[in-house]
Amino acid sequence: MKVLKFGGTSVGTVESLANVKKIVDGLAEPAIVVVSALGGLTDRLILTARSASEGKNDFEEEMVKISERHRHIVESLVPDDRKEAVWGKVSALLKELGDIFKGLSLIRSLPDRTLDLVLSYGERMSSIIVAGILEDAEHHDSLGFMRTERWFNKDIADRKLTDRLIKEEFPLPLRRHCVTGGFISRDRDSGEITNLGRGGSDYTAALIAAALNANELEIWTDVDGFLTTDPRIVKDARIIPTMTFVESMELCSYGAKVIYPPTIYPVFHKNIPIRILNTFNPTAPGTFISESCEGDGRVRGVSVLGKTGVINIKGSLTSNFAELNTRAYNALSRNGVSVLLVGHPGENADFPIVVPENEVEKGLGLLESEFSQELREGDVETIAGDKEMSIVAVVGESIKKIVGLGARLVNTLWRNGIEVKAVSDGVSETTIAIVVRSADASRALTLIHEAAI
Description:
- There is one protein chain.
- By secondary structure, the chain is an alpha/beta fold.
- The protein has helices at about 15-25, 40-55, 60-75, 80-105, 110-135, 160-170, 200-210, 245-255, 265-270, 320-335, 360-370, 370-375, 405-415, 440-450; strands at about 1-5, 30-35, 135-140, 145-150, 155, 175-180, 185, 195, 215-220, 240-245, 275-280, 285-290, 300-315, 340, 350-355, 380-395, 420-425, 430-435.
- The strands form three sheets. An eight-stranded mixed sheet has the order 3-6-2-1-9-11-12-10, sandwiched between helices. It has a six-stranded antiparallel sheet with strand order 14-15-13-16-18-17.
């Protein structure tokens, strides 16, 4: 049994949904199909909700457009004998959504939970439509089995409860295709509608695949698979036919947007392979992700993560790497600052720490407090922050065994006039990360791809 996830671009138009129908109807056995909202709808719902809460009346015009878009798809693709039933369900949800917008325009407020409720309508409507389009499918409401819990003011999946509810919702073997919406969920305690955040549809599909021990998780998107780098920057980027779970996680964590990184964990632990496929080019072989693959020990891909900053600690204390690293990491992480990587102490007695750009000021304050005594005594000379940085990550299973690779790549950048702000081997054997100014990131990516791939 397979789990197939189709993203927003895959379910965004009549043409793309016709491809989805052909793909699913052509399967040899029943599968579970997870769908996102129609492409671009989630962003539109956010903007419309905010506009309504500000007392503007343009939400009525937006509701007309949203309704017409869904009606067009139903009229174009749902068979005549199911058309009335499908549109009846969708139009009822559209009415509820319109009533919520009216309420927001009256109260002039947009609570977080209300926004979660608004966003849920995208997947609820798209999943009903897709179930109606397919030849032999039934609809399952993900609000019935996806559960979250509050953790540090965030909604995260309650894995144990969700796992049990998924097994109850989808008894095996499946009799027909089952279609459900991704992204949306309910709070396990209050029952209020929540969501799984960015990439939540991928994550929903992965949780279902893991709970049911699926043979494979297919992520259908608008690209032919993982590429060796960003094709918008490097023209000779090419498809990666096979890669490991760890390699895919590292590339996604450092900017590749093929899969939402947490998606990989549930199936990784069950050793369920992932296949990345293109809805618009379904015959392409895509990328196959598994526990191991051929060609270990070479660079698999290069990705770039922007909007980062570097905090540099300079002084004699940098000679005690273990103490400095532990104290700095603890001071930042326990106060909610994400440490993206820690660089090697430089020849100038500086110790670079890379954090998200919008957390540089907070990080500076925390580190100045943590090392206040050393600053007074001179063991730490300065703690300074620098923004507009990017991380270029070179990823491949066991690439640290490639003798001199890191030094060669750094020298390549220096020779081409690109200043390297920090270098880190990371915590695994899979990634070498090089920090440069964002203005140099595209050129650095091109040079490193040319030198490493």
